[in-house]
Write a structure and sequence with these properties.
The protein is of the alpha/beta class. It contains 13 helices and 5 strands. The two termini are 47 Å apart.
Length: 360
């Protein structure tokens, strides 16, 4: 039997403004931000299951905060007093610590705060600083890379590439194509020690180089199978030879749509002339600095994680033979990578991110 109908959530203009402010506020507790997102999603008319799936939480959590908001409105989203001794750290102190973490640097000249340096600067205990950081989702020691594309045709290219992923043309093959250049044939200076109970496998940090190779790969997004070829150099001549390999491997009655990055070897005059003579080839370029749009990069990650990272080779020939065997095994039971997000969802996410970093 269907469950009870969820309580309707209708927001006033003031409540909508406050909730959106909490979501954008950098110093707000992570728990309060999540609860605000839940209420905003419920106000859009979504069911508990839809809100839970969208935010990656349980339905019971959505049900709890929907009911709390309907009963107590904005005050229902704050934590209720709990039994035990009174709190020693006030909300104002917590907000000041979070703001200090985000906006200031240690006076010692360190690049980031540690729990010890922040405890010394604020007069709190180290454990209190650690708890506040965990609750607020702050990790001063961690750094991740990012880069936004400045391609003037970014939106058009995103829609073109994502559109062909989600709705491939009929009587055509969509191939994600790229080169993994400078794959090194590395041999460890000492033998690798095997894994044992409670002890991971171990390898030396130093190695001996025995040359490099470049792997050209074309991933069929429908089946997950891969057309691959090695070349010792990485020029437009090698790219042309790989296009001819693809042409020979794919039945002549199929059109070919190739998703590529903007590397210069893909756009030389020799390549353009060859494409004119082979009209079944259609090149679709990803935006600059947006390699995440090319699905073959996901396959390269599999190759690196499952094969290259822990391998040792004493020559380039041995390296190429080893990778070829791995690719052959992959093609016996290929696994396609399914693209899930639409172009609008990607653009909305990037827009929200740009607004957030501009507000900060």
């Amino acid at each position: 039997m269907p469950g009870p109908k969820p309580l309707p959530v209708v927001l006033s203009d003031d409540e909508l403004r406050v909730l959106k402010g909490w979501v954008r506020k950098r110093t707000a507790a992570a728990s309060l931000v999540l609860r605000s997102r839940i209420v905003l999603a419920c106000a859009e008319g979504l069911s508990n299951a839809q809100v839970a799936d969208g935010l990656g939480i349980s339905r019971e959590t959505v049900r709890k905060w929907r009911a709390r908001f309907v009963a107590d409105r904005l005050e229902g989203l704050t934590d209720r007093p709990r039994p035990g001794p009174p709190r020693k750290v006030t909300d104002e102190q917590i907000e000041a610590l979070v703001a200090k973490t985000l906006d200031e640097k240690p006076s010692s000249g360190d690049s980031h705060w540690s729990t010890r340096s922040m405890a010394q600067a604020t007069g709190m205990s180290q454990s209190a600083v650690s708890r506040i950081w965990r609750a607020s989702g702050l990790r001063p020691h961690a750094v991740e890379t990012w880069k936004l594309s400045t391609d003037p045709e970014f939106v058009t290219k995103v829609r073109d590439v994502v559109g062909i992923y989600l709705a491939p043309p009929k009587n055509a093959l969509v191939l994600a194509v790229d080169e993994k250049s400078q794959i090194q044939a590395l041999d460890r200076t000492q033998p690798m020690l095997p894994m044992a109970p409670a002890t991971p496998a171990r390898m030396t940090h130093d190695y001996v180089r025995h040359g490099t190779t470049s792997l050209f790969a074309a991933l069929d997004i429908a089946s997950g199978s891969v057309i691959a070829q090695y070349y010792r150099r990485h020029r437009h001549q090698e790219f042309l030879r790989f296009l001819k390999t693809i042409d020979a491997a794919v039945p002549k009655d199929l059109d070919l749509h190739l998703v590529l990055d903007n590397y210069a070897t893909h756009k030389t005059e020799a390549v353009k002339k060859w494409l004119i003579r082979h009209p079944r080839f259609h090149l679709r370029f990803t935006p600059t600095s947006a390699s995440w749009l090319n699905l073959v990069e996901r396959w390269f990650a599999e190759l690196t994680t499952r094969k290259l990272r822990r391998s040792a080779h004493r020559s380039v020939t041995e390296l190429e033979r080893d990778i070829r065997q791995w690719i052959n095994e992959w093609n016996k039971d290929p696994k396609p990578f399914v693209w899930a997000k639409t172009a609008d969802q990607i653009l909305d996410t990037l827009t929200a991110y740009c607004q957030r970093i501009n507000d900060s």
